[in-house]
Amino acid sequence: MLGIDLTGRRALITGSSSGLGRAMAEAFAEAGAKVAVHYRSPDDHADQAAAEAIAAAITQAGGKAQAFAADISRAEEVESLFQAIDTDFGGLDVLVNNAGMDGTRALCSEGKIQDWEAVVRVDLFGAYYCARQALQRMNRQKHGVIINITSVHEFIPWEGYSAYASAKAGLSMFTKTLAQETADAGIRVLAIAPGAIQTPINKSVWDNPQTLQDLDKKIAMGRLGTPREIASVAAFLASDLASYMTGTTVAVDGGMLIYPDFRQGG
């Protein structure tokens, strides 16, 4: 029987102190990977404590994990992050660009420029900074996997969140371009587009019966996904089971992209 095996792989999952990132860190560790659990800043004591607790729990369960901090919107901090991983892990085999933010809701004509820039700097520039460092290492070793976490909003516009949707669409083309650049170097680059997933970041939506009911109508399967359902796909894509996949986005969205409202006719 086929199983996901990441034994011996060294993986960095950005934004893994909670939500999707935490689930991916746990799943990768269960599959045998050594995991760098990333959080934003040591100044955020709650975030640091969460990341360290996740790494400790993985270690206690027999896995291997360590917490690392960096503001991925700053190139110099990303460089230091990868140098620290080199020192403690001896290199990197898998990068999951998961850290992101949707920002403050505002129409384009009304929002603040700095708010728009902040989202793009984390969601797109952050992924670029991390991928750049990862590829410098993966090119030397002639193998590696990069997984970019986009969103169904790389396909579906989202009023009031033009920065987020634009960054995720950009991340999709970034995925394809990197895959084209690196395919002959033994490196695979893929994206996962989650739909509505039940995480702390959107608790205000799924914790309210009215907004939850409205959201469920947008999903063909009629329910939110779980972080574990995203993590399982990420672990699969990082493994040799997906060895002939690169340059594409895998939607994990419960059927949101098949527009279930059209079941009743156009």
* Largest beta sheet: strand ordering: 3-2-1-4-5-6-7
The CATH topology turns out to be Rossmann fold
Encode the helix/strand succession as letters. Answer: EHEHEHEHEHEHHHE
Give the helix level as a range of percent.
Answer: 40-55%
| Count of discrete domains | 1
CATH superfamily: NAD(P)-binding Rossmann-like Domain
Properties at a glance:
Rossmann fold; 266 residues; 8 helices; seven-stranded parallel β-sheet; 7 strands
Can you describe what's shown?
The chain is globular. Helix content is 44%, strand content 14%. It has one domain (10-197, 229-253): NAD(P)-binding Rossmann-like Domain (Rossmann fold), CATH 3.40.50. With 266 residues, the protein is α/β, with parallel strands linked by helices. Strands 3-2-1-4-5-6-7 form a seven-stranded parallel sheet, sandwiched between helices. The longest helix is centred in the middle third of the chain and has 29 residues, at 113-141.
Structure at a glance:
The chain is an alpha/beta fold and 266 residues long. It has helices at residues 19-30, 45-60, 75-89, 113-141, 162-182, 203-206, 209-217, 227-238; strands at 10-13, 34-39, 64-69, 94-97, 144-149, 187-194, 249-252.
